[in-house]
Amino acid sequence: MKISHLEHIGIAVPNLAEAIKYYEDVLGLKCYKQEVVEDQKVTTAFFKVGDTKIELLEATSPDSTIAKFIEKNGGRGGMHHMAFAVEDGVAEALAESAEKGVQLIDKAPRKGADGLQIAFLHPKSTQAVLTELCEDPAKSCGCSCGC
Ligand code: ZN
User: Fold this and answer.
1) What's this model's pTM, rounded to 2 decimal places?
2) Fewer CB in 10 Å around end: N or C, the chain?
3) Which residues lie closer than 8 Å to 130 by C-beta, 6 or more apart?
4) Cα of 132 to ligand 1 centre, how many Å?
């Protein structure tokens, strides 16, 4: 697969408002978007750091994977996953990963936050770091016009 950059780092937080306050007041970053992702049962908040984003994740339900992650982590948040932007598309990157024996969480790309197509690889196959592959469909034709 061809990775262009680290698209974002996902961080699980028990309290989104408190976390946003830290990123804005201490680090001086600006939250440019908050979005609920229904099928992942999370509210996300995004910050840009160069080409990379920070994605804060707060659970909207106790059965969210983020709620379970925080519970396992003694009620604290922490780094949850990292996401790579793939230039040749998520579907192709998944097929290539499967061929190389990587355990997939998502067998097909699905809709993630911030308009991305995403899929997760299982940490068992990725040196213990939950890994997300993503592509921006607005950029998938290869030109920069946003078509
Ligand atoms: Zn993510």
Assistant:
1) 0.89
2) C
3) 10, 80, 81, 82, 120, 121, 122, 123
4) 6
